[in-house]
Amino acid sequence: MDEAFLTAWLSLQAVDGVGDRTLLKLIHAFGSPDAALHATVDDLVGAGCSAELAGAICRGPSEEIRRQIDRQVTAAVRLKIRILTFFDGAYPARLKTIPDPPPLLYVSGELSPQDAVAVAIVGGRRATPVGRVITEAIAKDLAECGVTVVSGLARGIDAAAHRGALAGKGRTIAILGCGIDRTYPSEHQTLRRTIESHGAVLSELPIGAAPQSHHFPRRNRIISGLSLGVLVGEATTDSGSLITAKLALEQGRDVFAVPGSIKEEACRGSNRLIKEGAKLIEDARDVLDEILPQVDARQRAMLRLDHRAIDAVPPLCQEDAMVYDALSYEARSVDAIIETTGLSAAHVVATLLSLELRGRIRQLPGQQYIRT
Please, what CATH class does the domain formed by 3-77 belong to? Predict the structure, then answer.
């Protein structure tokens, strides 16, 4: 997108009274934002604008707003940010189908045709260690099967989803609630750079926009809009991820949830989703079973469905199985495992190490272990 074209888009978007839907309607009617800005009042009224809005479009944004737009355009060029409009061929096709698609998307990294098969994974920022481990495992297996993982780069479940996808050497997309030139939270700068190398980071917000609270609910509609379904990990009853689940239902997307302890506050929101009809998910195969009927032959050809995530798990020997069976998806201490199995401490510790190296379990802080 050249500077003049971007300036015209931002100028029309900046006119008071021109929301996203009106913006797209005007560009569809006149062919370009520049043509809409130079249309007559009569032509604008004929296109469905009120006389007041038509006058505002003819006047254009104020001088101060024009200077802000010039700074944004200069920054976009300097930072080499790619900008997609709703009418670009590379604009995600699934996102176009939601009721209020973003007219502009700022992109760092690269989008891919493979991203047509995507699942969003979201959840609470104050996730438990168990919740993060389970999220990473599901995201990793989905990514290894060729499914793109979409999330919001937030602390907790979101970050675990991105890291799991990267561990599975797959693709992941992060949607920001701030301008594309910022990273929020700031400690995820390294994670963001890795995502850009294995996927993309997107924002609809202007360059320089701060991560304000009202940005995130709108950000969430993009997360669900890009995806075939939304998987909610640990979520409290006031978690923003429940907004994403609600938006997913409104967009006709599937909603899934990972069950958690009924005594864990961090799981009350996601558990409630299951009570209300969300599909209960225990592993990546459950997700694949739900989304594959929505995937056409061309998209299915991009997947790796022969991967171990949907294959049978190799059996364990008897003593390894004793230790593994003593574990669950709730963290257990070494002492509890020794007591349950009746095996010696040395044997249990050696077996735990072996199981961890094979990816069957994960060690948590405080010498706690869970299944993966």
Answer: mainly alpha
* Domain spans of the chain, in order of start: 3-77, 109-307, 318-371
Percent of the chain with pLDDT over 70: 97
**3-class DSSP string for 188-231:** HHHHHHHHHHCEEEEECCCCCCCCCCCHHHHHHHHHHHCCCEEE
CA distance 28 to 53: 17
Residue 83: its pLDDT value, please?
Answer: 94
Query: What does the angle CA 248 – CA 304 – CA 314 come to, to the nearest 5 degrees?
Result: 105
Tokens 């389970």 belong to residue: 134
pLDDT above 90 for 8: yes
For residue range 24-35, list pLDDT tens digits in order: 999 999 999 999
Q: What is the mean pLDDT of residues 193-207?
A: 96
Domain formed by 109-307, architecture: 3-Layer(aba) Sandwich (3.40)
